Amino acid sequence: MNLITVDSKQTMRVLPQLVPDTACFRCDVCCRFPEVDSFLRPYFTSSEINDAVAHGIPESFFPDKSGTQVDLVKNTIGEGYFCPAFNSKSGRCGIYDVRPLDCQLYPLALMWDASGREVLLGWDSKCPFMRDAPSSAIREYGERVATFFADEAIVEAIVAHPRLIGRFQEDVVVLKALPHLTVRLGPEPVDPQLRPLTLSDAPRVAKALEQAQVLRHDTPAAFAFPYHYIWTSLLPYWWMESDHTLFLFAESPDGWFMPLPPLGARPLDQAVEQAFVLMRSWNGPSPVSRIENVMASQRNLLECDGIQFRQKEGDYLYSVGALAALAGDHYKSQRALCNRAAREQAITSVPYRADYQADCALLYRRWAEQKRRGNLDQMGKLLLEDAEMAHALVFQEHERIGLSGTVLRVNHDIAAYTFGYWLTPQTWCILLEVADRSIPGLAQWVFRETCRTAMSQGAVYINAMDDAGLPGLRAAKLAYRPSAVLDAWVITRMTT
Ligand code: SF4
Q1: What is the mean pLDDT of the chain?
Q2: How many Cβ atoms sit within 10 Å of the Cβ of residue 250?
Q3: Which of 89, 173, 452, 457 has the fewest Cβ atoms surrounding its Cβ within 10 A?
Q4: How far is the CA of 318 from the centre of ligand 1 (A)?
């Protein structure tokens, strides 16, 4: 057995391992401790205690059956102490298949930052294997493990056992912050009304969108829960409700902003005023206080002396019929590429399933590397790094986020995937679409198939999101002849 069970109701995915068994057996760092009350003793959750007891570890080693660090046994032939599951003769864990998450994670570690405000993932420089491992391999492994901690079931399990997050250790090298865990476990938010945005908030956001009466076929794609939720793996997102209006906030390293205007039945100008008062109280006079994705129909309601508007990149909206057909001279090159892909490759498509996760993650990395090697500026490279966690979150939670996905195989290997959502019954939004760039025409073929599928399900329009300010993406999106590029603004409020 090689599964993590964190409580009796949940069986979790396998945590990938970097250090080979052979290296572990030669090493004398793990499972041994200098003091009887070492703060590095492994933490066992209640179900992990049950598993350990069922595998022969006496219950008496677990002072709190609801979750505890294990008591140690004295090394009778030398110095220090052992974990009671450790077999000092063989140098092996006696409960290896059911060892706790804390041990599976090592030599990575979850810990608080030095100020105790942020949850971090790092690697322990006491591990000899890790000290010699290439930093690229450690970084890549850290990314894989970080996606594991984006899984909602794992987050809930850790929330139930917050002592799985250890205290800050200077000899643990930080790999990345885990905002998903920080918002759930960190210090009280700046305002007691704020709540972390979680998957269970999807219906509340949908209701607020309905009450605000903002959804039309040409509403920007940002007016939907999935658009924001996928970035919670990168930034803490919070929401609050006031006077039947929902306020969505994101907490960037620079300060607080709203990724979407307030949603509700309340007059928009009043709600926006309240939002800026709140952000000013959290950010001070910093210009980071802003509201993004204000759409054209809302701009008229907000025109006044104090509000400044800055146009942002708009979403590209297309007629689905045009993209499904790709007829006429305008689409000659895209059509030729689709035909080439169909002629040269055996392409099949199937709905996305959770067991495609690892292959899709590998494809993302391959695709990102292909893009980096292409004509991509620094901003584009940073966006690719940020997007990896968002894609990983979608692989794990697509259904609960409200996304439908398809994977495309070329000669049996996964070579493309696409995920999207219905903004309205007429408009299908393509949130993520990745295709192996080494296969000529595949990206065009996938885009056309996505449009054909959406059309067969009733779509009239395709929203392909904005171009993130990237010139290459802009040219590609314009080449498909959008029926509109949707106006959207970022607003700030002058301080008096
Ligand atoms: S449970 Fe196993 S792996 Fe974990 S500290 Fe004890 S002996 Fe080592």
Answers
A1: 90
A2: 21
A3: 89
A4: 57
Atom of ligand 1 nearest to the CA of 52: 1
Distance 86 CA to ligand 1 centre (A): 6
Range(s) within the chain of domains with CATH label 3.40.630.30: 195-308, 316-464
* pLDDT range class, residue 496, cuts 50, 70, 90: low
User: What tens digit of pLDDT does each residue of 214-230 get?
Assistant: 999 999 999 999 999 99
Ligand 1 atom 4 nearest Cα = 103
Determine the Cα–Cα distance for residues 248 and 137; give it in Å rounded to an integer. Answer: 37
Phi, psi of 249 (to 5 degrees): -125, 150
Q: Which CATH number describes the domain made up of 195-308?
A: 3.40.630.30
Point out the least confidently predicted range of 175-179, 238-242, 331-335, 380-384.
380-384
Q: What is the mean pLDDT of residues 183-191?
A: 83
Cβ < 6 A, ligand 1 pocket: 30-31, 42, 83, 85-86, 93, 95, 99, 103
CATH homologous superfamily for the domain 316-464:
Gcn5-related N-acetyltransferase (GNAT) (3.40.630.30)
The minimum-distance atom of ligand 1 relative to the CA of 92 is: 7
Q: Of the candidates 387, 394, 392, which has an alpha carbon nearest to the alpha carbon of residue 361?
A: 392
Q: What confidence tens digit (pLDDT) does each residue in 44-62 have?
A: 999 999 999 999 999 999 9
pLDDT at residue 5 in the model: 47
What is the percentage of the chain residues whose pLDDT exceeds 90? 67
The pLDDT, as a whole number, for residue 11 is 40
- Give burial (CB, 10 Å; 0-12/13-18/19+) of 141: buried
Q: Which residues pair with 352 in a beta bridge?
A: none
